[in-house]
User: What shape does this take?
Amino acid sequence: MVMVEETYLPLTLYAPGLTDKKFQEFCDKYPNFSLEYTTEGELVIMPPTDPETGVRNAAITYQLMKYAIESKTGRVTDSSAGFVLPSGARLSPDAAWISLNAFQSSKPVPEFVIELLSPSDRPTITKRKMAEWIENGVRLAWMIDPRAQSVTIYRSGLCAMGRKNEPEVRSGIEQLAGEGPVDGFILDLRPIWNV
Assistant: This one.
């Protein structure tokens, strides 16, 4: 058993070749923490979020859920849901949308994810996580930074120049329109900025 002191979190341990069973056993030993596993074999242990981040995340999940119910196009998960990606990574987005067809899969991968930076998040780790989402089938991903009041947009596929899409940063905005898999979704950012 690893002793985990919350003041040192997030913590990254190297554990190559971790099976689904071993990962689940590790999760069961540390139920108060959120755990993820990267393609590179890194086990990331994160503390519970702070109340402000919880309020922001609830506002995001509520708006995405409302869109899914009204459009009848997919399912929404919150930050407690984990996904096993084709690469073997096991990640949990703060919010995700999955089409009805993809949801029927034995190992569904969301088409759209939102990651919300909390005070304990390390932006470099979250940026790597965003790239991992896109490399594993997510078509659109938003990384929301409430301190900078900015959203970084990650898109799958190639740009008009035939190169991989580069992330796009938008700052000073009050809302953001979905595209691709969540065309028609509008995220009101004011409840996230004004906590």
